[in-house]
Design a protein that fits this description.
29% strand; 8-stranded mixed sheet; 0% helix
Length: 319
């Protein structure tokens, strides 16, 4: 495991489990519009907490494997900055092995290029923007996008695809173990074109089971940073908690659709926001030391509940 300090000045590689720590001139970045050399982030754990996307300008690579197919892939992420934005040019291959034993991918992973842009100066908008099927949510610092919502609803097709109207009730939550969306151990699977994407925590890039203050692991479409799960609560390092809770009682029909049963989390409709129930707001974020950011949580909405700022149009899906 490598600890990667992603910085606009230097990238520090520390090999865990017996390697040597090295810092070389080829790992430095200069300016804000590009970098020299590249950094291997295969299985990297990030440590940097800067909320400024400019501090991550660099070329990053990885060498990983599709476990079930025994096929090797090379990941590529190039972050540049110009004209008030940071650009993430990706090939949609993660920095970790994927498609392991729990997974049942409907489509094979394919290296697909994409470009995302985020503002260098995110601001809170006058009103929140709801998540939608037409917009990807974020890009992580391994080049993989976050796409929280599924196009699967109860009573539509087979329940896994074809539900593209946001008003359709009883949309499945891919993060629920009851939903059986075939994700791997990184809460990810593929879209029809083979693009690998996360539906929740990447279970990578930060320590998810150790009380270490989490780094920035990506940027939402509105430019605000995404942190791992842990934050410093006045000297206590603990996980941030969501303010969404399961509704009580049993489901009732909506527009004639009635899956029945109690609220168990299989549908996103099973949850409701309760202000103050946890640390985070309705978008799953909070402000610490004057910096607003989203946090990975162990419960719904997992990473983002909405956008606090204005999403960049580069995250609009192109069907």
């Amino acid at each position: 495991m490598k600890l990667i300090l992603m910085s606009s000045m230097v990238v520090l590689l520390t090999a865990c489990g017996g390697g040597n720590s090295t810092t070389t001139d080829s790992e430095e970045t200069t300016g804000t519009t590009g970098s020299t050399g590249s950094t291997d982030i295969t299985d990297a754990i990030l440590v940097r907490k800067s909320e400024n996307c400019v501090d991550y300008v660099k070329r990053y690579t990885s060498s990983v494997k599709d476990i079930q197919r025994a096929v090797n892939f090379d990941g590529s992420l190039v972050i540049t900055a110009t004209a008030g934005k940071c650009t993430f040019a990706v090939n949609s291959i993660p920095n970790h092995d994927f498609n392991d034993a729990p997974a049942h991918f409907a489509h094979n992973v394919v290296a697909n290029t994409a470009t995302y842009e985020v503002t260098q100066t995110p601001t809170v908008a006058s009103s929140i923007t709801a998540l939608s099927l037409g917009t990807d949510n974020a890009v992580f610092l391994n080049g993989i996008k976050l796409d929280l919502l599924a196009a699967g609803c109860f009573g539509v097709g087979g329940g896994k695809i074809g539900c593209f109207q946001m008003a359709t009730p009883f949309r499945y939550d891919p993060m629920s173990p009851l939903a059986n969306f075939g994700t791997d151990s990184h809460n990810a699977h593929t879209q029809p074109d083979g693009t690998y994407h996360y539906h929740g925590s990447p279970n990578a890039l930060f320590y998810s089971d150790t009380a270490i203050e989490s780094p920035v692991i990506g940027f939402a479409a509105d430019g605000f940073p995404i942190y791992g799960s842990y934050f410093d609560d006045n000297g206590t390092i603990r996980k941030a908690t969501s303010s969404y809770q399961l509704k009580t009682g049993t489901r009732t029909a909506i527009d004639g659709v009635d899956p029945g049963g109690s609220f168990d989390g299989i549908f996103v409709d099973d949850y409701e926001y309760s202000s103050g129930a946890g640390d985070l707001d309705e978008c799953n974020g909070m402000t610490i030391d004057g910096v607003y950011g989203y946090y990975v949580t162990d419960s719904y909405p997992w990473v983002l509940g909405c956008f606090k700022g204005t999403p960049d149009s580069s995250f609009n899906k192109r069907r």
